[in-house]
Amino acid sequence: MSVLPAVDVQGLRHRFGDHVAVDGVDLRVMPGEVFGLLGPNGAGKTTTIRVLNTLLPVQEGDVSIFGLDVRREQTAVRRLLGYVPQQLSIEAALTGRENVAWFARLFDVPRRERRERVDDSLAAMGLLDAADRLAGTYSGGMVRRLELAQALVNRPALLVLDEPTVGLDPVARGGVWERVEELRLATGMTVLVTTHYMEEADAMCDRVAMMHLGTIRAVGRPDELRRALGPGATLEDVFRRETGNTLDGEEIGKGGLREIRRTRRTAGRVG
Amino acid sequence: MRSAVLAGLPAASAERPPAPPLWRTFPSRTLTFCLVELQKLSHDRTELFTRAVQPVLWLLIFGETFNRIHAIPTGSTSYLDFLAPGIIAQSGMFVAIFYGIQIIWERDAGVLNKLLVTPTPRAALILGKSFSAGIRALAQVVVVLVLSVILGVALTTNPLNILGTFVVVMLGSAFFACLSMTIAGIVLKRDRLMGIGQMITMPLFFASNALYPIAVMPAWLRALAYVNPLSYEVDALRGMLIGTPSHLPLDFAVLLVAVTVGVTAASSLVGRLAR
């Protein structure tokens, strides 16, 4: 029997008015993989993620999560997901424990299991000692871990992380990745993550897809992609090669001024 | 400790027990959002006091003054008795009418996206949020009720009537919270919602029977008062709290229909906030 892919995206197109944010994306993530979606801001990563986690409708193409059609079986898909958006999104006026218990209820965790699962999620993220403090007093790294605990309480089959380390200091970034890696080792959870930090993707992802202007330019294992370019090449070099011609005429015309600014900002950051 | 917990976590699986039926999801989500609102209130009670200032001023200054000059014909009921239920409804409405700001804030903070990715139908999310506005309004109402007793308003002592009061305030506030979230789904920006909220609260308040009986209004204002759910809320509150003649079945029916329409409108627009 063949294994159902955790994520199966075919011919996905998504537009906002005249702007085509995702332009024909095919993507397949297998169960247990940590899969990285890489690209500058405006590449279409977040739009892709929002379509497959049901926040945006599927306009064109086919998307399924563990064999469930995202168009027709939204609620069933949501029950399989854990989602951590780009912003640091917790309820600051609640304690850490209340934040997690809230999501346990929203994911229909049975009452008799609730307390234990909330505690386990907090403990797995190293937050048990701070659990009864208001989340508003947490550091950025702790907020991220609290969000992971909120997602974890559902025991997701697919964990979707949108730029999980953006805005965090290097130590907190390391902490977040360490927790994700531990989780994956302990549970075999599938993780789909977007990032524009190439070194992090190189170290943490089993496979990556490089996205630019709404299309996927390269897919593969980080080491294979690097080796194909030549000895000593970094993932960043691969990324530049696949997407780097962004500042010449043709490409610029596609994305417009906003795109150039975004790309320049990202280039500044990754370079 | 952490490694022990990690080792104890079950393997990730796409198998799920059957989903709970919708008739259980709606009340369960509503209770969840109400509980969260109570937890937030318990951590920060300052709002209870700051929001009490306005109704206190209405009752203490406006109420006491008009009680003395007998300018508004309220029959055998004293003006202060007549006014108290109106101020209760008004303070609930003032809490609820800015509730859409919270949903916009949650959108900006990414919380709304996370809520929308849970297995919660949008209508259940809106219903839950609107009743949690009712919880906040209720906390306010308790303050105004206590103040009314201190000022000597002839309030009922029947516990059933008090309970009915709470239900009516919940329904009324839920409607105004839905109205606010509907506007939020249209304007999408906090500042615009603030402006519109400021613009509509006073007209909603004045075009109702909260301050004066509908009978003394000019015809055009009377027409507005008859389509304003606040009038029905006040009518029910007056009937139950001070025993004036009221139209309870009609009042409840109007409020229930208003909440249903409000939830439908707001839940069809909330997706716009997620884009």
Description:
The complex is a heterodimer of chains A (271) and B (275). Chain A is α/β, with parallel strands linked by helices. In chain A, 42% of the residues lie in helices and 23% in strands. Chain A contains ten helices and ten strands. In chain A, helix 3 (96-106) packs across helix 4, helix 3 runs parallel beside helix 5 (140-152) and helix 5 runs parallel beside helix 6. Chain B is mainly alpha-helical and 275 residues long. Classes of the chains: A alpha/beta (271), B mainly alpha (275). At the A-B interface, helix 2, strand 6, helix 3, helix 4 and helix 6 of A face helix 1, helix 2 and helix 7 of B.
Considering the chains and any ligands shown, give keywords for the structure.
heterodimer, A: 271 residues, alpha/beta, six-stranded mixed beta sheet, four-stranded antiparallel beta sheet, 10 strands, globular, B: 275 residues, mainly alpha, 77% helix
- Averaged pLDDT of chain B: 91
Total of helices of chain A: 10
Main sheet of chain B, how many strands, which sense, barrel?
none
Number of strands of chain A: 10
Number of helices of chain B: 13
Broad shape of chain B: elongated
Alpha carbon gyration radius of chain A: 19 Å
Structural class estimated from helices and strands of chain B: mainly alpha
Largest interface: A-B, 56 and 40 residues
Distance between the termini of chain A: 45 Å
If strands are numbered along the chain, what order do they take across the biggest sheet of chain A? 6-7-8-3-9-10
- The share of residues in helices of chain A is 40-55%
Strand content of chain B: under 5%
- Find the count of extended strands of chain B (DSSP E, 2+ residues): 0
General shape of chain A? globular
* Rg of chain B, Cα atoms, Å: 21 Å
Question: H/E series of chain A, N to C?
Answer: EEEHEEHEHHHEHEHEEHHH
User: How many angstroms separate the termini of chain B?
Assistant: 41 Å
Oligomeric state of the chains present here: heterodimer
Low-confidence stretches of chain A: 245-256
